[in-house]
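REQUEST FORM: STRUCTURE PREDICTION
Request ID: SP-0412
Submitted by: Lab K.M.
Chain count: 1
Length (residues): 397
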Amino acid sequence: MTIKSITDLSIEGKRVFVRVDFNVPLRDQGGQRVVVDDARILAALPTIRHCIEHRARVILASHLGRPKGTIKPELSLEPVAALLAELLAQDVVLADEPVGDGARKVIGDLREGQIALLENLRFHPGEEKNDETLARTLASYADVYINDAFGAAHRAHASTVGMVPFVAERGAGFLMAREIEFLSRLLEGVEPPYVAVLGGAKVSDKIQVLEALLTRVDTILVGGAMANTFAKAQGYDLGASKVEEDKLPVARSFLRKAADKGVTVYLPTDVIVAPSLQADTGTAVSMDGIGSDEMALDIGPDTAAQYAAVVASAKTLFWNGPMGVFERPPFANGTLAIAKALAANSDALTVVGGGDSAAAVKQMGVLDRISHVSTGGGASLELIQGLTLPGIAALQG
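STATUS: Completed
RESULT:
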């Protein structure tokens, strides 16, 4: 890929539009909205600080949530601006709109080394539609365009694709460049054995990446609720567990393809069951021991140990998706076991693909022992399939 880095561009004194990914969780606290998880904000700081140090006039832009083209105060970026100002120890001016007279004035008043944050881009209906008028307006604010929002790189929106041709110079921020570097290493020339660990709720969400990985990996470990569908496809009674009945043929077809290609697919041999998600505890049972009123909510201890052993033997690892209902402590042990096993394998290239997997690595306190933790779950899945991400393609040339 021929993509310039922010370090290749002259940004001194220029208006630098940085598309960041500040799509972070918020909650009400003491009568105001606050950021719950600042990981994505922290990940963007190196690029923002580089702009400040080089005396750029910095315009940050992000979406937050799904306001669907309408203004929703609960999805304002105001809490993000407040936290960012605290982290940078300098003012961050929040425009009261993504585009318009207010935004233009805020940007026009910027001095070298100062920062403005546009209000939630998705408050404008043209953002997700990649509307050319919105794209041209956003581009008019900038001399240089930097994309550091890997988590939105698989979306062809006005701020990730549409505006780019209308800005004189373009490049990738430090976060984007690192994501491309590490995820691209999983596409070719990897050191075997290459193990992929995939979890999550639905086979339908992951079947494309599962099938794409059959041409690249040696082993696939399957967990989460989607493992239930594979188990039922093999004839097990899953009781009250979540199963995609309409995807049973898809699951059987995938297992046949894996066998034909010589890829080993591991499925749970035991699970943690409970009568509901709200249960305070779970019970470990074998796959043929699930009661009619029980739900499989995590991989069991035998499966966790087996998966950890496979992870320990790998030289290349990719992990995306929890092994169980990770947000509930009684059903988080399988996911945490995978995080611990990845961190212990210091000889491997280990890449974690965002979401709950990244949260597990953080919770275990082993972030510094993973080669790369992606900030974009969906984007990372598309990139390791070898798909072209619109936000990355727009930076080329």
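NOTES: The chain has a mean pLDDT of 95.
Reviewed by: T.R.
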